[in-house]
Amino acid sequence: MTFAPFTEAAVEARFRSLPEPLQPSMLRLRQVILDVAERNSEIGPLTETLKWGEPAWLPKRARTGTTVRADALKGSATHYALYVHCQTSLIETYRRHYPGEFSYDGNRALIFSVEKEPPAEPLAHCIALALTYHRWAKR
């Protein structure tokens, strides 16, 4: 997998500060997020930034979707998460679509281990749902 260059030095620095076992997995997750946005005309370009010190991505176009964040689980060098806004229905939606494919943390995150790649298509679908949340959630 080829990784897109970073556009923000602070985000790149955050990735470089991750424990070594997490860096490849987190870079792959970042690339999946960028690829999902690039392939989906409804999402459009993303802003890549840090929110609460964590890498975060959100559509540049207003009222498209909610922010997704990714980071190591606190205190872990082998587990990481994709976070969504806890006041959305996203995790409930993910659980409905993918009850056994992911581990969940309450109503805020999908949890992954560096030992097992997350399932590609379900992960891409979950990311797309988050990045288009405001377009479908109120229907």
Notes on the structure:
Helix 2 (23-39) packs across helix 4 (120-131). This protein has a single domain, classed as Aspartate Aminotransferase, domain 1, CATH 3.90.1150. Strand 3 and strand 4 (79-84) form a beta hairpin. The chain contains five helices and six strands; from the N terminus they run ααββββαββαα. With 139 residues, the chain is α+β, with helices and mostly antiparallel strands. A six-stranded antiparallel beta sheet has the order 1-2-3-4-6-5. The radius of gyration is 14 Å and the shape is globular. The model has no long low-confidence stretch (mean pLDDT 96).
Q: Helix fraction?
A: 25-40%
* Mean pLDDT over the full residue set: 96
Poorly predicted ranges = none
Oligomeric state as shown: single chain
Q: Helix and strand layout, with pairings?
A:
Layout: H1 9-16, H2 23-39, E1 46-51, E2 54-59, E3 68-72, E4 79-84, H3 90-97, E5 103-105, E6 109-113, H4 120-131, H5 133-136
Antiparallel strand pairs: 1-2, 2-3, 3-4, 4-6, 5-6
